[in-house]
Write a structure and sequence with these properties.
alpha+beta, five-stranded mixed barrel, 12 strands, extended
Amino acid sequence: MGCSSCGTSVDGKPRGCKSNGSCTTGGCEKLSVFDWLSNMTLPSGEKPFHIYEVRFKNGRKHFYKNPGNLSVSMGDVVAVEGSPGHDVGVVSLAGELVKVQMKKRKVFFDDENIKKIYRKASQKDIDIWQRSRDRELETQTRGREIIGRLGLQMKLSDVEFQGDGNKATFYYTAEGRVDFRQLIKDLASAFSIRIEMKQVGARQEAARLGGVGSCGRELCCSTWLTDFRKVTTTAARYQQLSLNPLKLAGQCGKLKCCLNFELDTYLDALEDFPDQKVLLKTERGNAEFVKMDIFKKHLWYTYKEDSAKWYKLTLEQVHEIIELNKNNELGIPLEEYESEIEEEIKIDFEDVVGQDSLTRFDAPKKSRRRRNRRKNSKPKSNSKPTNPQAKSNNQNQKNTSKKRRRNSNGKRNQKK
């Protein structure tokens, strides 16, 4: 995940990114924050903000205050207050930007629930933290076995150990309510640690596990998307998409988050379009809406009496017919409107260099029929006479056949 400058060193201690989020390798992804106030000095008499943002596994972040006035900067590994014991995390944000993040998450500066930063993590703290992280995969595998034995309708997606190794948080997904009281007892006796169960949604689970979407790129939720907005099928209807659940659903089983990305653009473009329920009154009859192309500003209408053919109209033509109908006038037939539209000739491809064919250097393949005909027309080697006596017999037979042909031709001439 991380680049060489902020990865783990030989002794197991994370170096920490000192570039304030301006790392060009892209390895830090959505967890790194660019501190654009880092080079600005505070006014005279102003003290640095005493609350820091600390990041843990899978992007979990919390705010911690620094009562001991420790010299802490972004990227430092710190030991913070846990419940119970202590946890180990990395400082992800410091300074004035922490105030902005706290206002965004609606956390007050004088909140008593804000925990403390104990100290900068020592080598012993980091060693214990690293050993606890190495146990997570094995704990997750055994936890799934225990869940399967108890027959609980839940899915264990991830396990996170606390920095001191005395507590583990089990993240799970479930469709309904799960009674895991017996599960907690079995897990506590199996691992001899304090157990905490935390339920997460399907989107949060996909963000933790990661993957590749139908577009061929990594999932947005696991790379850069931090907030999950509500996605409904109305967004697909506005974008003229077919309501196919297999195509609209992501790997989490919910509607894709990217349905909201272009929704505002479609809503702005649809402001100029008339209501789809409005009928166009023409001299031939009433026409009803069929479909439309939003960005090309084309609409298709068909007559109620004859719905076999669709007529393409521009947005200006439709507004013109609607204005005529408001004045109790009928528009001309749709065929005449459609004939006025000038079709633009679209050139998909031009062969400029003459290298449009990928097989232009390949030898042409010969058909099998020609090969078979040539084989059948050639005389077989075994049929050729090798004996001179046989050659003379064949020649005599040819001569006699020629004489018969001449006699037959002469008799035909005499009859005539």
